[in-house]
């Protein structure tokens, strides 16, 4: 009976682990120990699906203009002829910070 209830919860919320499942069971009126929920989920292969950490930030499939790569055939013979740049963000404990790099090719 408990396993069937856990199965319905994990089908409804795929990313719920044993802690969230225990809270949801309490909301539904069944009190279960976290260790028991963990054991039952492991025995019946009801492990949660991991959330994807990778987030695509560039959208290449758009209707906007796509600019040509003009520096493809450009030969660099000295400094200050071709500059390249990139902008990205790095996750830190308090959120994220932007990192901008400009280089003389």
TrEMBL record:
Transmembrane stretches, start-end: 82-103
Domain of life: Bacteria
UniProt keyword terms in alphabetical order: Membrane, Transmembrane, Transmembrane helix
Domain HTH-like: 4-54
Pfam families in UniProt: HTH_21 (PF13276)
Key word Transmembrane helix present: yes
PANTHER family in UniProt: TRANSPOSASE INSF FOR INSERTION SEQUENCE IS3B-RELATED (PTHR46889)
Protein's name in the database: IS3 family transposase
């Amino acid at each position: 009976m408990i396993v069937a209830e856990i199965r319905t919860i994990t089908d409804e919320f795929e990313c719920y682990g044993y802690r969230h499942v225990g809270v949801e069971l309490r909301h539904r009126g069944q009190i279960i120990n976290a260790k028991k929920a963990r054991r039952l989920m492991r025995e019946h292969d009801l492990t949660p699906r991991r959330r994807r950490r990778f987030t695509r930030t560039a959208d290449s499939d758009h209707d906007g203009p796509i600019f040509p790569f003009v520096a493809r055939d450009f030969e660099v013979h000295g400094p200050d002829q071709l500059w390249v740049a990139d902008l990205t963000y790095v996750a830190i404990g308090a959120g994220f910070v932007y990192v901008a790099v400009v280089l003389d090719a």
